[in-house]
Specification:
Blueprint (H helix, E strand, L loop, with lengths): L10 H13 L4 H15 L12 H15 L10 H8 L2
Amino acid sequence: MNTVISVKIDKQVKESAQSVAKSAGLTLSALINSYLRQVIATRHIEIFIPEEMSPKLEGLIAEVDQDIRNGKISRGFSTADEFLADLKK
């Protein structure tokens, strides 16, 4: 037997969650049901809210991006020997 619950959430949160659910081939209702079943099965509630970047961090990332574009950042290496050989140049 199904039952209805009513919760108030931000419109943008609902729309974004619906989009995520749809990309996985689910309805928002199915996504919520799945999460609640997971909570019941694991007895674990996991909530993750990413922190917003500070203006200082955004500036540092912009500097690194610019350095990458200007070739100031070394390339990636597959082995420590490759890294050491490049370092000795």
